[in-house]
UniProtKB/TrEMBL annotation:
Obligatory cofactor(s): Mg(2+)
Domain of life: Eukaryota
Residues holding GTP: 123-130, 149-153, 171-174, 240-243, 259-261
MF GO annotations: GTP binding; metal ion binding; ribosome binding
Record-annotated Hflx-type G domain positions: 117-281
Any one annotated GO CC term: cytoplasm
UniProt entry keywords in alphabetical sequence: Coiled coil, GTP-binding, Magnesium, Metal-binding, Nucleotide-binding
Protein name (Swiss-Prot/TrEMBL): GTP-binding protein 6 isoform X2
Organism this protein belongs to: Thamnophis sirtalis
Residues holding Mg(2+): 130, 151
Length: 343
């Protein structure tokens, strides 16, 4: 943040209002905040700036011989009152955020209960994360915007992989180089969802002249968020907006080249996601021979992902190819011990 003296000198020299980086970023955040949680997080991040302003005002009052006087016999100076009010505001905001954090934790537990693989989509601000999620899910409600920090809230969107496995794509806040520490701290609770995901997609705008620097920024923030090592090591790097680069060729190995806007590379990306998800979650692709006279087929449709059903009418059985989790497989064997479980 600019010191008051520096700000005043610059405004005097240039003849215009001067705002520091922190104030500008806060303003952009405030304009894009839509949910209660985002607004609370911004209010929390704004408190250091307000405290600085109070101290600066008091310094000016001191010069006028009034800043340290007690207010109406309260035993508190002007600065003490203002700082106390800001502290009370901070306590209220943190209490409200803790409540929202608890609610979000319950939502995470529900997702885990239904065993939907969770894929966090991350990247530098305005790299095309929301556009990519819209392309992967077909969610018409998503309205990507070509602007900084258009997404300030964690949102989840269901999509299907080639095997018909349902996954949840989590849209996250975009990053920025030299993002003020207080802003990172304020939004760290929101980004806790990333640590609970099964896979991370790192989306890069390869048409940007500083795409390599942006990559370093994102990876640096991820490491500071205490993301588990297995997630960091399994990140899928998505080189997006290749339609804006003539004859683009990736320099990084295993990068998936896409144009979310035009739909290029989505098939390859989904296949890579599926391979990583199956490996990371321990889900199995297997064939189960069942008796069609019982309830097992409907149970499998409910508890697993049914890919194919090969019916043998002569003995009223079927070979069912499924994607199934370890816990669901254990339940299936316990409920239907007469079935044959084939690899």
């Amino acid at each position: 943040m600019l010191s008051p003296v520096a700000k005043k000198e610059l405004e005097k020299a240039w003849g215009v209002k001067v705002f520091d980086r922190y104030t500008i970023v806060l303003h952009i955040f405030r304009c894009n905040a839509q949910t209660k949680e985002a607004k609370l997080q911004i209010a929390l991040a704004e408190l250091p700036l307000l405290r600085t302003n109070v101290r600066n005002e008091v310094a000016q009052l001191d010069q006028q011989r009034g800043g340290s006087r007690y207010i109406m016999g309260s035993g508190e100076t002007f600065m003490e009152i203002q700082l106390r009010l800001l502290k009370e505001k901070e306590v209220k905001i943190q209490k409200a955020l803790r409540k929202l954090k608890k609610n979000r934790s319950l939502l995470r537990k529900q997702r885990k209960k239904y065993e939907f693989p969770i894929i966090s989509v991350m990247g530098y601000t305005n790299c095309g994360k929301t556009t990519l999620i819209k392309a992967l899910t077909g969610d018409a409600k998503l309205q990507p915007r070509d602007q900084l920090f258009a997404t300030l809230d964690i949102t989840a969107h269901a999509g299907y992989l080639p095997s018909r496995l349902t996954v949840l794509y989590v849209d996250t806040i975009g990053f920025l180089s030299q993002l003020p520490h207080n802003l990172v701290e304020s939004f760290s609770a929101t980004l806790e969802d990333v640590a609970c995901s099964d896979l991370i997609l790192h989306v890069r705008d390869v048409s940007h002249p500083e795409t390599s620097l942006q990559k370093k920024t994102v990876l640096s923030v991820l490491k500071n968020l205490n993301i588990p090592n297995h997630l960091l090591e399994s990140i899928i790097e998505v080189h997006n907006k290749v339609d804006l680069v003539d004859r683009y060729q990736p320099t990084e190995q295993n990068a998936i080249v896409t144009s979310a806007l035009l739909g290029h590379g989505l098939k390859e990306l989904k296949e890579e996601i599926e391979e990583r998800v199956l490996k990371g979650t321990g889900k199995k692709i297997m064939t189960i021979k069942i008796n069609l006279s019982g309830p097992q087929l409907s149970w499998l449709y409910k508890e697993a992902v049914v890919q194919e059903v090969d019916v043998a009418p002569e003995d009223n059985t079927a070979k069912v190819r499924v994607i199934i989790s370890d816990s669901a497989l254990w339940k299936c064997k316990r409920l239907f011990p007469q079935s044959s479980y084939l690899s």
